[in-house]
Amino acid sequence: MQIIDGKLVSKTIREDLKNKISLLKSKGKTLKLTVIIAGNDPASEIYVRNKAKGCEEVGIKSNTVFLPEDVSQIELESVIKNNVDDNSVDGILVQLPLPKHLDSQKALKLIPPEKDVDGFSDGNIGRLTLFSNDALFACTPYGMIKLLEHYNIDLQGKHAVVVGRSNIVGKPMSLMLLKKDCTVTVCHSRTQNLKDFTKTADILVCAVGKKHLITEDMVKEGVVVLDAGINRVDGKIYGDVDFENVSKKASYITPVPGGVGPMTITMLLYNTYLAGLRKIDE
Ligand code: NAP
């Protein structure tokens, strides 16, 4: 059994990005990411700080716009529009969740796919569905694909079972695996006899948010397991997979923490690089 080390892969990608971004800078192009946060949600503030730190590490100029909790829809949209029109801005990210009185879908629709570095927009999900090469992919599933690539895990013709169908993890992951020539099964909360599906998985992806939903008896020998789940219980973080026991049967498995988690911000930095590069190539 091999542990998939997300910290190591993330570090490798960031080092590579640093070199690529410095090369762009020497040619006169500085990459710029705008992060917009509204309100004082402590978890969101931490995520936003980590995104800014990541940008600094690889040489992306970041600008975090802090909006008050009671910001109006019009004010929020005007900040987004200014950044859409600003040609020096390569990527725009609106930190979710927004305060409840705001219509986040309406606001997010203002970001064109080319600057949507979170990859959540209709445009980017549409492009992914069409297997178009100019999509920007949602960061967490894209991070999982990069992990599979890093460990040279063969995907062609393999049966991938994705548990979870959210718009930000499960659904885009199932499309990315389909693009990689897997045969894909998607499971969700209404799936009957989950074990019947997970048992047949060559590649098992979990993005549910339920501690140890997947147990040893639910997987086959040699399975490759990617666990996106983050479940905080009594101050400790657990995945959706019972790592201790499932790892005895797996050929590759991500730990939680230290597996999928470290890849998400790294892929945001990567998407910002791609967005900037594509603008130059236009
Ligand atoms: P979400 O929007 O709550 O979606 C959860 C999905 O799991 C839904 O599709 C739901 O089905 C399905 N589900 C719920 N109970 C189930 C069950 N008993 N059996 C099978 N499927 C079940 O969550 P999310 O945003 O995708 O996040 C999933 C997990 O990943 C969470 O723990 C989250 O914290 C973590 N996460 C990690 C990162 C990272 O950076 N590592 C990023 C994002 C999310 P229905 O569609 O039928 O409701």
Structural notes for this entry:
- The chain is α/β, with parallel strands linked by helices and 282 residues long.
- The protein has ten helices and eleven strands.
- The protein has helices at 6-26, 42-58, 73-85, 104-108, 122-129, 139-150, 170-179, 194-198, 243-246, 263-281, and strands spanning 2-3, 32-38, 61-67, 91-94, 159-163, 183-187, 203-206, 224-227, 231-233, 236-238, 252-253.
- The strands form three sheets. A six-stranded parallel beta sheet has the order 1-11-8-7-5-6.
- Helix 2 (42-58) packs across helix 10 (263-281), helix 6 crosses helix 7 and helix 6 packs across helix 10.
- The chain binds NADP nicotinamide-adenine-dinucleotide phosphate.
- NADP nicotinamide-adenine-dinucleotide phosphate is lined by residues 140, 163-166, 168-170, 187-191, 194, 207-210, 213, 228-231, 260-261, 264.
Q: Let me know the average pLDDT.
A: 97
The global form is globular
From the alpha carbons, calculate the radius of gyration and give it in angstroms. 19 Å
β-strand percent reads 15-25%
Order of helices and strands: EHEHEHEHHHEHEHEEEEHEH
Put simply, the count of helices is 10
How many β-strand runs? 11
* Low-confidence region ranges: none
Output the strand order for the largest sheet.
1-11-8-7-5-6
SS content category: alpha/beta
Oligomer designation: single chain
Q: Which ions and ligands are bound to the chains? A: NADP nicotinamide-adenine-dinucleotide phosphate
